[in-house]
Amino acid sequence: MSFDAAACDLVFLVVPVWAGKPAAAFNTFLRDHDLEGKRVAYVISSMSGNADRCAADLDAKAKGARRVGMLSLVSPQKMDPEELDATLASFAREVGAA
Ligand SMILES: Cc1cc2nc3c(=O)[nH]c(=O)nc-3n(C[C@H](O)[C@H](O)[C@H](O)COP(=O)(O)O)c2cc1C
Hints:
By secondary structure, the chain is an alpha/beta fold. The protein is built from three helices and four strands, in the order E-E-H-E-H-E-H. It has helices at 25-32, 52-61, 81-94, and strands at 10-18, 21-22, 39-46, 66-74.
């Protein structure tokens, strides 16, 4: 995956929950990308809305990063697209990205 965190000071991690934790591909992403000193914001999608364990796992793996926010989305594909857009825009403003 071509992503250079060096150019970013805020990184959004948009993560589906699998078996209570981040989907497996995120282990690889976080292993291969140095987020030390970065602000990170999590957008976590699940069927259950239980995002805390997933967020704690991301905290542990995004070493040296500082979590500035978390948005938990329940089955976002079933949300009204305008409501989803507004929710994401509001979260982006909350964490200082917009
Ligand atoms: C292998 C797998 C495991 C999942 N495990 C969970 C889970 O433990 N808890 C939960 O709330 N949702 C779970 N889900 C639902 C996904 O989090 C949900 O489908 C996803 O956030 C929505 O994105 P998608 O439409 O890309 O799948 C799982 C989905 C898959 C495919």
